[in-house]
Design goal:
With 754 residues, this protein is of the alpha+beta class. Among the domains are: 33 residues; 219 residues, Glutamine Phosphoribosylpyrophosphate, subunit 1, domain 1 (4-Layer Sandwich); 88 residues, no CATH class. The protein is built from 22 helices and 27 strands. The protein has an eleven-stranded mixed sheet. Strands 4, 5, 19, 23, 24, 25 and 26 form a seven-stranded antiparallel sheet that branches. A three-stranded antiparallel sheet has the order 11-15-14. A hairpin with a 2-residue loop joins strand 9 and strand 10. Helix 17 runs antiparallel to helix 19. The protein is globular, with a radius of gyration of 29 Å. The two termini are 49 Å apart.
């Protein structure tokens, strides 16, 4: 029957005489049909997701790759770490992009979206808060500027890497996260790699949120009280870069009560440990270097292990997916490590009068919701953020990288080719990112330390917000030669752990507050316990769970109670007296000590002020007895859970906040805390552990907490967690013989015109 024919009269006669009944029957039939369609769609969706959970990238066999110049061999070792052998640098970086996208495509896309502030496009309104923050910095504009300034070799490396990412994205199975969120990633571009490198620098920079919090204290209490609440360091535990006790400068007691300070949430410090010994201090006559950067604990993790080799380049270690080359690791002649220097890079200003022409509207696409428009103020040097002391106004932020045209990727690629420690220092002198403390060791046996990056000579040093009139001021970056350093030496030992890196009469403050020196102190203590070191000793140091500050706190608290109540008795007090200062997994006392420290000293600016009072260095009174009694009344050591459980943490998937917890990784038992070398706290831990023996690159090694692959079905999603918990540091094969000996599979990429 055609749509335009008259209806058959017999149909009219046989129709139900009640129109409402007929309509109701029709709606029921359509409702059933809609329900069946919805169920079919739901089943198709579930089947697609289930398929994604079991799908994984091809890492064996031969694959055609368009844009490749010559064949490339990719050997996967027993941990599934790729060892890439290419005939030229173009194909080398192409293959690096290919393997990283094969294993971590969703991580690449999520990092790019985080950088550009477009998470809400796929994750919905919950992600809009992150997008608003990122869009303020206008990372896309910085990346465009850096792209135009790239040298031809660096541009070629980024182009080859991007082509490799896109080749894998089109030839490998779509990861499960894309199937769950129902979208496909856009092609990768050169600008995207730059954006990922910029956001990495932003994460290492002094946060403007922290500056607002400090400014509140500065305005309320003044400079002297600020120094009590935000001391530059804990002088009792300060050590120099050369692992020697720093000279203590006595300071007058300060009465500074933190009780009426507004509570501020402080993000966990992006920290790291690194230390090295020259050939004259090692047992085999070669330099040694150890590094364990601290980062949010996620699956997949931020670090990707890879070995890169062409006739012009051979380097291995940890890469950041999205950025070609090795971020931290070694080549054939040097090894390098870095830690966040914890120095002031960001200046915040009151806004004052703002030019109308500098306002820009940013449009945010929000999934399942209407678009949102936000107005930002941007000049050539500053960008606007909400003034956290007065939400009705904006403040202006000056972050040096915001105005940079040079990329940190340029430094990374040059460092990958450095010939010795001195050559590496020449490369680092041009590093244009947020300041980091770099340690370099070379095959000649020399080790060196130098802070590198942009450190503006700003008199505020991140302690307060500048008045608007000071927007006219230009804070020139500190010359590289004036930043803290230890020159290359075969006899030196060097240490950096986000602590204050200078001593004596160094003329610059550099920071509002460095990270507490407790990890650096313990590293120096362990180095001081021996005259000679080997890779095994360095690896054991990375697992050390002794906390000198917590042991001091326990002893001070017990002494305080003896003074007030006499010797005292009870299982809990006895366990605290016997505690050896270690956050060992089996320790029940450690769980009590951690609760005691948090109750007595608390977090944020309260910690330093209350610690000074506990030591008798301050006249402030905080009612410690009540805090101690409340903890001890709840603690019975025989019933307290061991630190294994109390200090344990789950390795969460990047989308865990979106209720995708079934993608989470394994549980890490408690071992160490935030002040131990073996750093681990809730959702934050060592991102990798590496020790490099420069006599033989096949010794030492590197470990990561989960696995190489970001695909749950691959078999290499969480397969390295057991070795991580056990403290095993597996070698990263580097020589041809070692790679062949540990080979578990081979992929060949063949040039293809299709």
């Amino acid at each position: 029957m055609g749509f335009f024919e008259k209806p058959d009269p017999r149909l009219i006669e046989s129709a139900d005489p009640a129109p409402a009944t007929a309509v109701g029957r029709a709606l029921k039939r359509q409702a059933v049909a809609l329900a069946l369609c919805f169920a079919a769609l739901l089943c198709a969706y579930a089947a697609n997701v289930a398929l994604g959970l079991h799908a994984f990238a091809t890492t064996r066999g031969t694959i055609g790759a368009r844009g490749l110049y010559q064949p490339v061999a990719i050997v996967r070792d027993a941990r599934d770490v790729p060892h890439i052998r290419a005939a030229n640098d173009h194909d080398l970086f192409y293959a690096q992009g290919y393997v990283e996208a094969s294993d971590r495509l969703f991580q690449l896309d999520l990092s790019r979206r985080y950088a550009y502030g477009t998470l809400a496009e796929v994750l919905g309104a919950k992600a809009l808060v992150y997008d608003k923050l990122q869009r303020a910095v206008d990372i896309e504009a910085i990346a465009r500027r850096q792209l135009s300034a790239l040298t031809p070799p660096d541009r070629a490396a980024l182009a080859a890497y991007s082509d490799g990412v896109n080749a894998a994205a089109t030839s490998q199975p779509l990861p499960v996260e894309f199937r769950m969120l129902l979208y496909r990633p856009a092609p990768w571009t050169l600008k995207d790699s730059l954006a990922v490198s910029i956001v990495a620098s932003l994460e290492l920079a002094d946060s403007w949120h922290d500056i607002f919090a400090r400014d509140s204290v500065w305005r309320q209490r003044g400079a002297r009280c600020f120094d009590a609440l935000y001391p530059l360091s804990d002088a009792r535990y300060d050590v120099t870069v050369r692992a020697e006790p720093a000279e203590r400068t006595p300071k007058p007691p300060a009465t500074c009560d933190e009780s009426d300070l507004a509570a501020r949430t402080v993000r966990p410090p992006i920290g790291s440990n690194a230390w090295a010994a020259g050939a004259g201090r090692s047992s085999d006559g070669a330099a040694l270097l150890a590094n364990d950067p601290h980062i949010d604990l996620t699956v997949p993790g931020i670090w990707y292990l890879v070995d890169l080799q062409s006739p012009q380049l051979h380097c291995a270690g940890a890469a950041i997916p999205g950025i070609p080359g090795i971020a931290l690791g070694h080549n054939e002649r040097i090894a390098w490590a870095s830690t966040n220097a914890a120095m002031a890079t960001t200046s915040v200003f009151e806004a004052g009068r703002l030019a109308r022409s500098a306002w820009h509207i940013e449009r945010f696409h929000v999934r399942f919701a209407r678009d949102v428009r936000i107005v930002y103020y941007r000049t050539a040097r500053e960008f606007s953020v909400p003034d956290e002391s007065d939400p009705s106004r904006v403040a202006l932020v000056r972050w040096p990288v915001y105005a940079q045209s040079r990329s940190t990727i340029t430094t990374e690629l040059a460092l990958n080719r450095a010939r010795d420690a001195r050559d590496a220092l020449d490369v680092l002198a041009r590093y244009p990112g947020s300041p980091q403390g770099f340690i370099v060791a070379d095959r000649r046996g020399e080790v060196a330390y130098h802070v590198a990056g942009i450190v503006p000579d700003d008199p505020a040093w991140g302690r307060y917000v500048h008045p608007a009139r000071e927007l006219r001021e230009s804070f020139a970056p500190m010359p590289f030669a004036r930043l803290p350093a230890a020159p290359p030496s075969r006899e030196a030992i060097v240490v950096t752990a986000n602590n204050k890196p200078y001593a004596g009469r160094y003329p610059y403050r550099l920071s509002a507050q460095f990270q507490p020196p407790y990890r650096a102190y313990r590293i120096a203590e362990l180095l001081g316990a021996r005259q000679r070191y080997d890779a095994r000793y360095f690896a054991a140091m990375q697992l050390d769970t002794f906390s000198p500050i917590d042991l001091e706190i326990v002893r001070d608290v017990l002494q305080m109670r003896r003074t007030q109540y006499g010797e005292g008795d009870g299982e809990t007090l006895g366990a605290l007296r016997r505690w050896d200062g270690r956050y060992a997994p089996q320790s029940r006392a450690a769980a009590v000590v951690h609760s005691l420290r948090e109750a007595v000293l608390r977090d944020g600016p309260a910690f330093s002020a209350r610690l000074a009072a506990l030591r008798g260095e301050s006249n402030a009174v905080f009612g410690f007895d009540r805090d101690v009694d409340s903890v001890l009344s709840l603690a019975a050591v025989s019933e307290t859970t061991p630190w294994r459980k109390a200090g344990g943490t789950r390795i969460e998937h990047l989308l865990a906040p979106m209720h995708f917890g079934f993608l989470n990784g394994d549980w890490l038992p408690g071992a160490g805390d935030e002040y131990t070398i073996h750093l681990q706290e809730d959702g934050f831990a060592q991102g990798f552990r590496a020790v490099w023996d420069l006599r033989d690159w096949d010794r030492g090694g590197i470990a990561i907490p989960s696995g190489e692959s970001g695909e749950p079905g691959s078999g290499h999603y969480t397969d390295l967690t057991h070795a991580w918990i056990s403290g095993v540091l597996q070698p990263l094969p580097f020589s041809r013989a070692a790679v062949d000996r540990d080979a578990a599979g081979l992929m060949r990429l063949q040039p293809s015109r299709r």
